[in-house]
Every structure is written in structure tokens, then in C-alpha cells.
Amino acid sequence: MNKWTVLCAVMMLATGLTQMAAAESDDQSCQPDIKKFCADVKPGGGRIIQCLKKHDAELSEACKARGKQAREHAKETHQACKDDVQKLCKDVQPGEGRIISCLKEHDADVSQACKKSMHRKQ
């Protein structure tokens, strides 16, 4: 796997984590915005996130802050997990959560830094 493929894989991992964090957030910061702007959008496949991005200028301050927090976490996870992705998941085709699944399958071999970042409550 060349460095560009690894970069893409790790970015997809980070994007997946960002989407999961926004969708599964306990703080519900974006729920009013989701109801207002994305009520007709079917959840899954990053569609809610894409909808929120389209309405970025109109989002509440709470939702914008939550999105910023999720992006920062994704960057941290990218850094923490890039070597693990290269080492453990180099033959995995990025997309549809395959990189995250690969890392979970290799949990015993994943670095502590990656584990900590992936499991950190935002």
C-alpha cells in the first residue's frame, strides 16, 4: 500500500469516526439542526453529515462547536492510528467502515495511542 493509499485510508477512518461521533453524540448538540435541516434525509452513509455541511452557515453555535470538536478528534485519531493502519490493514480497501472494522479485529495488536484515541469519549 503506497503512502497516498494509506493517507486516504486514515482520512476515511477519521471521517468515519467524525460521522459516528456526531451521530452517536450523547450531548445531542446537533439534534435541533438535524430536525430543522435534515428531517427528510435517511441516516447512514454520511448523509446526515453531508446535509449539515450544506447548511453550515445556518447551524446553531452548539452544533458548530460540536463539529469542530469532532474534527479535532478525527485529526488526533488520524495521527494516532496511521502506523496501525499501514501495519495491520494495508490490504483493506478503504470505505464503508472497513478500516475501523480491521482495527477492531486486530485490537490486541493496535497501539495504545490508537486505542485511546478511538475509544476516547468526545
SSE blueprint:
Layout: H1 3-24, H2 31-37, H3 47-54, H4 61-88, H5 98-105, H6 112-119
Helix pairs in contact: 1-4, 4-6
In short:
This protein is mainly α and 122 residues long. It is built from six helices and no strands.
Written description of the protein model:
- The chain starts with a helix and ends with a helix.
- It has one domain.
- The chain has helices at residues 3-24, 31-37, 47-54, 61-88, 98-105, 112-119.
- The protein is an all-alpha fold and 122 residues long.
- The protein is elongated.
Q: What percentage of residues falls in helices of 4 or more residues?
A: 55-70%
Mean pLDDT: 80
Number of strands: 0
Q: Cα-atom Rg, whole angstroms? A: 15 Å
Any idea what the shape is? elongated
Q: In percent terms, what proportion of residues is strand? A: under 5%
What is the count of helical runs?
6
Largest sheet: none
Q: In sequence order, what are the helices and strands, one letter per element?
A: HHHHHH
- Count of discrete structural domains: 1
The class by helix and strand makeup works out as: mainly alpha
* Low-confidence regions: 1-8, 17-25
What's the end-to-end separation, in Å?
31 Å
